[in-house]
Structures are given as C-alpha cells and as structure tokens.
Amino acid sequence: MSGKLGAFINTGIGISAAFVVAGVVAFGLAQADHASATAPNGAVSPTPATTPQPVARPATSTTPSPAGTPKAVAGGKKVVFFTFDDGPDPHWTPQVLAVLAKYNAHATFFQLGSMQAAHPGLRDEVLAAGNTIGNHSITHAQLTKLTAAKRHHEIFDGPQSKCFRPPCGAANDRVRADIKAAGMTAVLWDVDTLDWQRPGQQAIVNSILTNARNGSVVLMHDAGGDRTQTVAALDQALATLAAQGYTFPAMDC
User: Fold this and answer.
1) CATH of the domain at 211
2) Long-range contacts of 226-231 (CB under 8 A, 24+ apart)
3) How many CA within 13 A on the CB side of residue 113?
4) 89 falls within a domain
C-alpha cells in the first residue's frame, strides 16, 4: 500500500509540521499482529516480566495502514519503515539494534509498558541509537474486549509516544476515539512478516522483499519468543534493500 499518507514520519528532509499533519490519514482495522498468551480471542494481561505469545491470524490485511508521506518521495528517497513490536527484550532488542546500526538504519519500536518497566534501561538504549518508540499498550490486552476504564489505562498510561499500535491490530470506534484523545495517531502496517511464527529466515526475507514498496511499513518483533530468525532475516533484507537504494528512517513518534 505504498504511496498513502501516513502517521508523522521522520525522514530528515525538513518537511514542515503543517505539511506532515495535512498528510495524516485515518487508519482502519488491520489483521492481528499477534495475540495474548491465550486463545485467539483472549485478552489476558501478562505480568510485567512476561511477553505476549502470538497466535494464528490472517496473513494479509485489506484495510489501510500508514505508509509513506510525500516526504521521501518528494525528496527523491526510497524508504522502508521497519517496526518492531512487544519489546523491549534484554536479549533480542540489542541484537536488532546492532543489525540496524550495521546498515545505518533506524526503526520504530512499539513497546509494552510492562516490558519497559521490567527492562527500564533498554528504552534509553533504543532512543540513543536514533530510533523512536511507539505505544503498544501496557500489557498487550485486546482493547476491544476491555471495559472503558481498563481500555483508557492501557492506552493513556502506556509508553509515551505520538504513535499507537493496537495489540492484535484490533480497534473499533471506542479504541480509535481513545487513541485520538490521548494525542496519538494509530499506526498499523503494510507488510506482515509473520516472524513470530518462526517460518524460517528465508521466508521472512521473502515476505519483506516481495511485498515492500517505497513507503511500506514492515511489521517484525523484538520480543515474545526466540527471535533468531528475525535478527538474521533483518540483516539479509536490509543488505538487499540498501543495495536497491532504499533508506530506513524511523517514524516521528
């Protein structure tokens, strides 16, 4: 879905805030990026020291997601936005950061408040490397199944950011209203790598290279399980895309 206007993207080309705001569009509901530690329709809140366990979900989305703004296109740049959900994780997040640094790439990390609390130093490490952080709620609960009070808490008290990615991609009018009231923009994705399923390094790479276009948002994970395949696939995909002239900025979150 490249070429659609998206959530405030930081591309380093000096586009005015007014121009970027004018490019923001409303995003609808996409398929689940992952679910809680129970069945697909569950909404269990993990403890701060645990990470959400994904479950099966559709592999494609038929609804809009935030892609590029006129930003990079106007500047003559080809960009792909990499995003990582569910962290920070003390083992996998530093490995992802190392691969990004290898290619002078940046990304946006949609973090859980519970994981930030369990591993407080990693937030600063992500930011110090030139990346940005998005709000992915506190406990990865499915927001559409919560009471108003609990939903408000998950959104408003999650990691501080201008961007919010609903757990499971699940949203309705109430969720979207709360995201807006919290001063954030909903951010989904264009390319779902399904890396949490651990389909194999090459399968993840193929998903990125086959589906990514200028301005695409790629969904990956830096927590929630063994991310060996994710780290290796990221390295391979960045090498190929960089050779094709792509750059990898972080979103302005």
Assistant:
1) 3.20.20.370
2) 226/198, 227/89, 227/92, 227/95, 227/96, 227/195, 229/195, 229/198, 229/199, 229/200, 229/201, 229/204, 230/92, 230/96, 230/193, 230/195, 230/204, 231/92, 231/95, 231/96, 231/99
3) 17
4) yes
Give me the domain span that covers residue 214. Answer: 78-244
Radius of gyration of the chain (CA): 16
Whether residue 249 lies inside any domain: the answer is no
The residue type of 199 is P
Q: In the chain, how many domains are there?
A: 1
The confidence score (pLDDT) of residue 44 equals 28
Domain assignment present for residue 55? The answer is: no
The residues annotated with a catalytic role in the active site are 85, 221
39 in a domain, yes or no? no
pLDDT tens, 13-31?
A: 332 332 232 333 333 333 3
- pTM beyond 0.90, yes or no: no
